[in-house]
UniProtKB/TrEMBL annotation:
Keywords for this protein: Cell membrane, Ion transport, Membrane, Transmembrane, Transmembrane helix, Transport
Cellular component terms (Gene Ontology): plasma membrane
Entry keyword annotation includes Chaperone: no
Record InterPro entries: YneE/VCCN1/2-like
Membrane-related topology note: Multi-pass membrane protein
Region named Disordered: 175-237
Comp. bias intervals (Basic and acidic residues): 197-208
Species of origin: Cyclocybe aegerita (Black poplar mushroom)
Record's subcellular location: Cell membrane
GO molecular-function terms, A-Z: chloride channel activity
Protein name: Uncharacterized protein
Length: 487
């Protein structure tokens, strides 16, 4: 998510140039500029290639409206993605507050729940709050098409969950869906080496981030004794930048070379090349599994009388909100603009820009070249922007910063669990509290020690001690604040 100019923020690198769309459109702009140059040179030296321009205004207006619709629809998806992540942050915050504040630590007189100790109850609540953070992290990986749970920022939060349907040592076939690794050969491989559990992971964190912010350091560190059948992958695994990102035209030659080499291998082996499965759709059951665990915990607390019905209703509402949000994010991620619309719009724009120099030469002469270059840059740029922000969940500099959103959730949940939920009487009636300021600047401790009946401090007060005197003080306080703040 670009909140400020990425080109001049921090150390400048060529990769930051990708925040613009210039590296995507410059081959097309160059091509149409060369066409305009050819038209001008031929017209100036041999034959006049200029043609009438009655369709220039009409077609330009239509293309402008269509491109505007394309960009607006893409930006609407971008905004919807941001709103959905606001819902995740809000729902996570509300759930954590309800779990941490409203589920009691002292469960005396709560039946079977009274058998647990205070430390067990605190561990129980804190573990559920950690699962709320795991939900946000799992949604991040789900939107980026990163399958499985074996990531540095996700696995430590859920490693304690049950793995088998029939106990801790069931056969492989009875492993619960959460722990099935969904990675396959069709998915982009990890660019950086996967980190092992335990000491090696801790050392790699300290040496690979070069002192930068590393939210994974604040997560539980899995020890070698934690059961895991594979190493953990990095929390962030953006695709590596190659020459194809700066010269998109080379992707055509790469595709042709890949097709030719595949045909050659198939001829040598005598087998027809198999088509890969279409893996464009992103699917994941991990957020749903985490919601199921949280829902089950809510049901257990209700059955034990640990949650008031009104609070339980709020918990259920926020769990439903998180589920609906994931469904909406999946809709945005898996519903691109139809290819026929994109292809037709791009071909129409190419034809318009191809014939543009012929139509403006008679009026513009040599200005035809820079005019065509500017028109190409303008129209192709807006078209490319719409295509780039259509799916705002990847690693591009213009995409939403999902890692930052997860960090926000992590900070807020730790802030909530840092609250000790004390009895209000422990901090209200102290010398630091002046409840009736600015009219009465006596502390709460002095007011309590002065007697059971409140007496207003102003001499002009003729009100009898008690509640009427308190009301008079509050009204005078409103008048004083209103006067002082309006000067």
């Amino acid at each position: 998510m670009v909140s400020s100019n990425p080109l001049f923020r921090g150390t400048w690198t060529a990769k930051k140039f990708q925040a613009t769309v210039i590296n995507d459109i410059w081959p097309e702009v160059l091509f149409f500029s060369l066409v305009a140059t050819m038209v001008v040179l031929v017209s100036e030296n041999k034959y006049n290639l200029g043609i009438g321009n009655p369709l220039l205004t009409v077609l330009g207006t239509v293309l402008g409206l269509v491109i505007s619709f394309r960009t607006s629809s893409a930006y609407e998806r971008y905004q919807d993605g941001r709103k959905m992540w606001t819902n995740i942050i809000t729902g996570s915050r509300n759930l954590a507050q309800m779990f941490w504040v409203h589920i009691p630590v002292d469960r005396t007189g709560k039946g079977d729940a009274a058998k647990s100790t205070m430390i067990q109850n605190i561990i129980e609540k804190k573990s559920m709050v950690n699962l709320i953070l795991a939900f946000a992290v799992s949604v991040k990986h789900f939107l980026r098409g990163e399958r499985g749970v074996y990531y540095e920022d996700l696995y430590p939060l859920i490693s304690f969950l049950p793995r088998y349907a029939n106990g801790a040592h069931g056969p492989e076939g009875d492993k619960l869906p959460l722990w099935h690794d969904d990675d396959d050969e069709n998915y982009r491989p990890v660019d950086t080496p996967a980190t092992e559990l335990g000491r090696e992971m801790s050392l790699s964190r300290d040496t690979t981030h070069n002192g930068a912010s590393d939210p994974e350091k604040a997560l539980p560190l899995p020890l070698p004794r934690v059961a895991s059948d594979r190493p953990l992958k990095p929390a962030r695994n953006p695709p590596s930048t190659s020459i194809y990102d700066y010269i998109p035209l080379l992707r055509l030659f790469k595709w042709i070379a890949r097709k030719v080499s595949r045909r050659a291998r198939s001829r040598q082996s005598g087998q027809r090349p198999r088509r890969k499965r279409n893996q464009d759709l992103v699917e994941s059951q991990i957020p749903l599994e985490i919601i199921l665990v949280l829902s089950n915990y809510t049901a257990v607390c209700m059955s034990r009388g640990l949650l008031h019905p009104a609070i339980a209703t709020g918990v259920t509402f926020n769990l439903t909100l998180l589920q609906d949000t994931v469904s909406n994010l999946e809709r945005i991620c898996n519903t691109p603009l139809p290819f026929a619309y994109q292809a037709h719009l791009r071909m129409s724009l190419w034809l318009y820009l191809l014939f543009l120099p012929f139509q403006i030469y008679n009026q513009a002469k040599w200005i035809t070249i820079p005019g065509t270059a500017f028109a190409s840059f303008l129209l192709l740029g807006f078209l490319e922007i719409g295509q780039e922000i259509e799916n705002p969940f990847n690693y591009d500099l213009n995409d939403l910063d999902l890692d930052y959103f997860c960090t926000v959730v992590q900070r807020e949940l730790h802030l909530i669990t840092a609250n000790t939920t004390p009895d209000p009487s422990e901090f209200l009636f102290t010398e630091l509290n002046q409840p009736f300021a600015p009219v009465d600047r006596r502390s709460a401790k002095e007011l309590v020690e002065s007697g059971t009946e409140y007496v207003a401090p102003h001499a002009a007060d003729k009100t009898e001690p008690g509640i009427d005197s308190i009301r008079r003080t509050l009204v005078k306080g409103w008048k004083d604040v209103d006067t002082l703040t309006r000067r």
